[in-house]
Structures are given as structure tokens and as C-alpha cells.
Amino acid sequence: MIKIIVNDIVPILVIMALGYICGRVHYFDDDQRQGLNKVVLDIALPAALFVSIVKATREMLASDLVLTILSLVGVTGMFMLSYLLCKKLFHHTTQEAAVCALIAGSPTIGFLGFAVLDPIYGNDVTTNLVIGIVSIVVNAVTIPLGFYLINKGQSEMRAKAAKGTKAVPAASAAVPAAGSAAVDDAKAPSTPATPAGAPVTDQEARAAEKEHGIRKEIDVIRAEERGHAKKHAIKNPNVAAIVNAVKKPVAAAPLIAVLLVLIGVRFPSELDPCFELIAKANSGVAVLAAGLALSTVSLGVNKEVIWNTFYRLILMPAVIVAAGFALGMGSDPSKISMLAMAVALPPAFSGIIISSRYNIYVKEGANSVAVSTVCFAATCILWVWVMPILCSMFH
């Protein structure tokens, strides 16, 4: 157990602290910080997700249907519960609650799964099965679902802001003098500015922070657009949210990988190095970027951070373990113990990267990740100690 803490948890804290220090001394400016987020979110993380999922097989998913169904329903259900509770208890917007769920409702199974479970339970078929199935659910279900909810929330914000803009009487606008019309036309921007209250582009977010010190929420769809010219818009907001979500590499890559697995297409192992080389950059850069995100907000522990930490490390695994016992998994103490540890890991770093990239739920998210990672050193020992006791009671 000490080896796990020293070899796996301490390096995360050290790199996160390094990112925090770099942010506080302004070693990276905001553009460079967002550049790191883009590298992780659009390149390294999609590659890591794709290569990890595509190694699975249909036989693996079918070999233990109880584990597969419990992981799918349990992880997705607790993800959605985290989302709903964040909206109801802490009164956050749809997109903020979605990022909260990506943090509090998603374990970092791809990053710490093997590093934590192998030393405790050994590297065998069952360990690989549990990690593989939970990893597929977290990466191929909750990340696209999170992006769908973010897009849905921002779509609602844009619609509300547009209505507010239309409500302003046309007569209230200043009427230019006749002689200045040509000059004004020449100076007028080719595209309208983002309405007040709507998420903005990268360019507008940089300008707002530089000129006014305001950190504005960035529009996921228009993040890197320099203008706002309308494209072929999808009228149905739910369909538009789904389409815009799967356009993102971090959502599309795991979905494509799962599709290949389900139809039985084996990805050539000779191509693995092409993905693994950039995928290896994911973990370290993601943790460094998390530290940079933490440096942009005030450090603090409030009731929301405590709740997110409790939800991530205690409540979610407890509910899934209870469901496992109800489904008869208590007959295999080793497997249900592995499942408990797999879903009791610290928050997935993809959540805080998305948070930092789009300026959504940054303060609460960054502090929740930091506190949860520190507390995992204790809750890891707790779950290792309590699972044999529970298994003996419900065997």
C-alpha cells in the first residue's frame, strides 16, 4: 500500500504542484495554458482512449455480463446522479453540472487502474477484465455524455441570450449621421459580436481576460472560430448537442473504438506504437495542466468540494458495491473488491482538462480534483480493509 502511494499518488501531487507553481509565477501565459489543454483534449487523450479501448474484444464484454451490465448501469447512473445533484443542491448550470459529473462521477481508471489494482490484486485475467470494462464505460459513455450535456447547456444559454438581444427595441440604437454612414460601414465588423450572457470564442475570452480580468465561459462549438457566420444549423437542440458532442476528438475516438470492438474488427497491433507515442504524453501533461488550472483559482475547501470528494471516493463505489452484492457478485470476493477499487479511484483528469479548456466549473473542479487525489491515499486503504469484511458478511 505504501508503494502505491509513493509510486502513483505522490508523483501526481508533485506534478500538479509543479503546474500550480508554474501558473502562479506566470511561467505559462493563458494562451500557452490553453495550448496545453488543446494538446491533451484534442490529440493525446483521444489517442490514449482509442488505443486502450480498441484492444478489447466482444468476448471480453460477453464473458461476464453481470460485471458489464453493472459497470454500464452503475457508472452511468452515478454519473447522471452527480449531474442532477450538482444542479439541484448547488444550483449550477447544465454545463457546469456536466463538468462536475465528469469529475465527481468518473474515476481515473485509464491513468491509475493498473497502477493501483495490479499491486493489490495481481496482474491476471480478472484484473484486466474489470479495468477494461470500467474503462470502456468511463471513456466511451460518460465523456461523450458529458460533452452532450455541455453542448445542451450552452445551446440553452445562446438561445436565451439571443432572445434578450431581440427584445432590445431597435429605436434604442444610436442613429449615425448621414455623412458618417460610409465610415461606419467600413469600420463595422463582418460578423456580429456574441450576445451578452452567451458563451464566447477563444479570441473573445482572451480579450475579456486581458482587458477586464474577466474569465468568460468558452463556447465548445465556436471555441476557435474568429467569426460567427452561421453554418448549416441543426434546428433540434438535442440532435445538435449530440452531433456537436461526437465531433470532438475526445468523444469520437472512444466511440469509434467501441464500434470496432462490437463489430469484431481487430485493430492491427503493428499500428499501436503510432498511437501510444502521443498517448504517453497524455498523463503527465494532463496532470500538469490540472495544476495550471488550480493556479488560476483560489485554493479552498468548501462544502461543494467536500461533497464532490465524498461522492467520488466513498458514495459512488459504495452504491456500486451494494448493487454488486445484490446481483450475487459476493460469491467472487476478489472480483467485487477489484470493482470497488476501480470505481473508487480519484477523479478522471479529462474532467478538469475540459473544465480548464472552456472555463467551466474551474474553481470547484480544480479544488475537487486536488482534494480527492490527496484523500485517496486514505480511502484506498479503507476500501482494501473493508471489502474482505463485507464479502465475509454477504458471501
From TrEMBL:
Keywords: Cell membrane, Membrane, Transmembrane, Transmembrane helix, Transport
Transmembrane segments: 6-23, 35-53, 65-85, 97-117, 129-150, 250-269, 281-301, 313-330, 336-354, 366-386
One cellular-component annotation, GO: membrane
UniProt keyword annotation of Iron-sulfur present: no
Biased composition regions of type Low complexity, renumbered to the chain: 184-202
Chain residue ranges for the region called Disordered: 184-212
Classification via PANTHER family: AUXIN EFFLUX CARRIER FAMILY PROTEIN, SLR1864 PROTEIN
Membrane topology listed for this record: Multi-pass membrane protein
Key word Flavoprotein present: no
Compositionally biased intervals (Basic and acidic residues): 203-212
Cell location: Membrane
Biological source species: Granulimonas faecalis
Main localization of the protein described in the UniProt heading: membrane
Protein name as annotated: Permease
Record GO biological process: transmembrane transport
